[in-house]
Recover the amino acids of this structure.
């Protein structure tokens, strides 16, 4: 459930996260995958602007320590994302979701299915690493016992939008594959290719959000 990216790769999307949260007035924000908290802070800043709250889910406690003025708006849930989503009360609807945890195709498909009932028509789901592919490189490995280096073929993550010879139909990026298989009559999406890619999703056949979010319930959700 950890992000596979280094801090710099997720962190470069911070302006987008803060801007989206503020632009749509997000009050209920969900972050799936936190690690160092590089994306938690901009989500919290957006929540502060919108008078909202951020709920972060990860298998391990986040290393992030929010500024004092934002602490009350942050709720850390340690555990598995699928279990968290299955146990969500039906009335909880998210305005903004940042999805950057496990990147396998099966995991993302199940996650999006579980998220769907908790979205309204103007909710935005942002997914990181939608441009990550696996390439293989020959490298020289030094043996720990001091022996001679030897060649070995290893797998590395690459941004395949930067590799013109790679077909865009490749399926080794589980996140992108899950997005592309979503039914077009229900979902629309656009991808920004920088920093291993970020895709914005909208469930266009979700119900409209009519009510205004006025109070915080006992679990920190705006209702």
């Amino acid at each position: 459930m950890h992000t596979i990216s280094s801090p710099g790769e997720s962190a470069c999307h911070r302006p987008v996260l803060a801007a989206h949260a503020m632009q749509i007035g997000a009050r209920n924000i969900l972050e799936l995958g936190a690690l160092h908290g590089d994306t938690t802070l901009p989500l919290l800043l957006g929540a502060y602007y919108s008078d909202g709250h951020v709920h972060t889910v990860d298998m391990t406690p986040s290393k992030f320590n929010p500024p004092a003025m934002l602490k009350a708006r942050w709720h850390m849930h340690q555990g598995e994302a699928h279990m968290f989503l299955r146990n969500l009360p039906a009335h909880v609807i998210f305005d903004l979701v940042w999805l950057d945890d496990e990147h396998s195709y099966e995991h993302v498909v199940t996650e999006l299915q579980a998220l769907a009932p908790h979205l309204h028509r103007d909710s935005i789901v942002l997914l990181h690493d939608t441009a990550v592919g696996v390439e293989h490189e020959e490298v020289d490995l030094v043996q720990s016992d001091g022996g001679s280096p030897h060649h070995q073929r290893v797998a590395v993550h690459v941004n395949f939008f930067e590799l013109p010879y790679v077909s865009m139909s490749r399926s080794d990026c589980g996140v992108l594959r899950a997005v592309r298989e979503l039914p077009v009559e229900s979902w629309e999406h656009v991808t920004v290719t920088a920093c291993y890619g970020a895709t914005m999703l909208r469930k266009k056949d979700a119900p409209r959000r009519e009510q205004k979010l006025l109070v915080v319930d006992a679990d920190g959700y705006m209702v």
